[in-house]
Every structure is written in structure tokens, then in C-alpha cells.
Amino acid sequence: MRSLYVHIPFCNRICTYCDFNKVLIKNQPVDAYLMALKQEIDSFPVTDLKTIYVGGGTPTSLSMKQLEFLLQTIKNKFGQVSEYTFEANPDELTTEKISLLKDYDVNRISLGVQTFNNDLLKVLGRTHNFDDIYRSIEHMNKIGLDNYSIDLMYNLPGEKLMDIEDSLKNIEILKPKHISWYSLIIEPHTVFYNKINRGQMSIGSSIKEGEIYGRVINGLNDIGYPQYEISNFSQKEFQSQHNKTYWLNENYLAAGAGSHGYIGDMRYYNIKPVTHYIKSMNDHKNVVKEKIKLNKTDMMEEEMFLRLRLNQGVSIERFEDKFNMPIYDVYGKALDKHINLGHLQQNDHYISLTDEGRMIGNDIFVDFLIDD
Fold first, then answer.
1. What does pTM read for this prediction?
2. pLDDT tens profile 73-111
3. Can you list the domains of the chain with their CATH numbers?
4. Where is the Radical SAM core domain (predicted)?
5. What DSSP assignment string belongs to 18-39?
6. For residues 263 and 285, what is the distance between their CA atoms, to the nearest angstrom?
7. How far is CA 188 from CA 16, 17, 71, in A?
8. Dihedral of CA 124/125/131/133: which sign?
9. What would the pLDDT profile of 271-291 be if each residue is shown by its tens digit?
């Protein structure tokens, strides 16, 4: 076991596009939640980890006292790790909180920027503005917590190509270590989804999504951020080691309401509602709602879906060692089809998506489902 994800489900405001497990922090039993979370973390049988990622929700919505309680809980259990990431909103990342995070060995920030356009930030329901982005990064640089990732989205309602160009210019100025840049997907149970259903808005920009994605890839590469995963880019040696745990299809622990973990051949899912999570931890010392045992077919499919997201691709040798079957015996038909179409390529000991294949990744992944 090398990684842990910790979920903080509280936010000061609910964004219009967000479908993660989250609640407005006002009037929530935050202290009781953190105590239940401590009990879950303390129950884990391992103490040696390489990466920890605290996400949400918005972890920086916690007060200083609450934040320190969480940080102390994690430190007491696991000590220091090589990559320790906290998600943060620019307007909530005060100098005091940055200093506190640094004091507890947090060495990476995932900053929820989403866009540099103030009008689009309002549409997304974000609480920060352009100035907050620069201010928070200035504070991080001064305090010495300068390993940060900027999270962005494209395909936003009303977005123009000039907005993509503007983001690229700001990235070149700010020089973050890492960029995550995802296409906006409208999920059920979000404000955006409800507005679209009522005919109150339409989604997507006037530009084709593929054109934007291509510009994102090429633009970032030109300024020193080569792509290493479908939606992730970094300076040399600053790839997200925690997220690569997911894409490499390796095991990880998860703690908190609605979090998902993966141990051995078992994926587990924690109880989602905050109050139910607290009650279950207090009453039963157990917050796992569901366990799903994966069979060999499930694991082979996941190996393909997840590893193909990485530019490196699927290791032919690892696949055979892991499943005791040559990859072409299982997926020969699909591999031949997409190699011939120019969607996949085989280089040395890996099979990976081509530039064209990355544009239609989900369509390709469907062909790696095995009929039982």
C-alpha cells in the first residue's frame, strides 16, 4: 500500500458544475466529522505511505483549529511522506493556512483555478476571482510551498478560444509545476444539469471540443508542460505521484464520507451522507457501505482503461505477469483494430494511445470490455 486519499466534504459555496460528495459547511457537524475521520484513519493497519491526497469538497474551508486537528491526525498516524497534496481554493488560501500546511509537511497544493476569466468564474459559481489566483500563488511562493498544480477546465459555456490563449499566457507567467486541464462534463444533480433541463442555459462553447483540446496539448507543450496523461501536464519530475497510483491501477486507501478505496481485488465505497458517516463510525466503528470483489475480467478491463490514460500506456510485460496471459490473447482483436486505425501504437514494451486516439479515448476503451 502506497497511497491514501482523505475526503473533506465541506464547501463555503456549491459550484454549479460539481457532483462530488459535498455540503455547505455552515451548520454542519464539522468537528464530529473530523473526530470520526480520525477514528477511521487510526484504524488503518498501515503506517508507511508514499503519497497522501486531501481533497473534497474544499479542505481549506476548515477553520485553522479544524485544519490543524486534521493535519495532526494524519501526521500522528503516517509521519512524513514523499508527496502530500492538499486541494485549495485561491480565496481561502491565507498566509496562515499556507504556513500551517507547510509546518505539517504538506509539500504540494492543488489549486482550484478552473479559469482566469472573471465572468466565467461567476458562471461556474466560484468564490474567487483573477486577483485571488495571483495573490494566493504569491503567498505560496513567499512561504516556500511553491510546488503547486493549477486545475483548469475547458468547454465552458460562453468560452472563446481567446480564453484558452489567456490561460496559457497566465500559466507561462506563473510557472506552476503541474497543470490539470479537464473538459467540463455535465453530471446529474448539479446546478448546470438542472438549468439545462429547464432550458435556462446551453453548455459548450462555439468552438469544437477537439480543437480546444488540441490547442491545450500543444500550447502547454510549447511552454514546458508535456502531456503525461489525457488531462494532465507537468514540468519535468513533477508528475502527480498520487494520481498515478490510480492510473497505474495500484492499491490505495481512502478515508472520509463517500470516499473510494482499492485493496487487493476489492474496491470499497464509504457511506456518503456526513451524519450517517459519523453515526456509523461512532456506533459500529465501520463506515464501509459497499465492497465489490473484482474478478479477473474486471481487473484486466481496468488495467486497460486506466493505464491507457497515461501517455506511457499499458505495459505488455506487466499485463502478462499480472494475469498470466499474453495481452494479445485477450485483446488481440481490439488491439489490431485500433492500431490499424491509427488510434493505438506499440512502442518497445508498451501499447499507448496516439495523438488521434487521445481525442476519442472513451470510444476506444469500450472495445476493451470483455463479454462474459
1. 0.92
2. 999 999 899 999 999 999 999 999 999 999 999 999 999
3. 3-247 (3.80.30.20), 312-368 (1.10.10)
4. 1-226
5. --SS-EESTT--HHHHHHHHHH
6. 19
7. 11, 9, 33
8. negative
9. 999 999 999 999 999 999 999
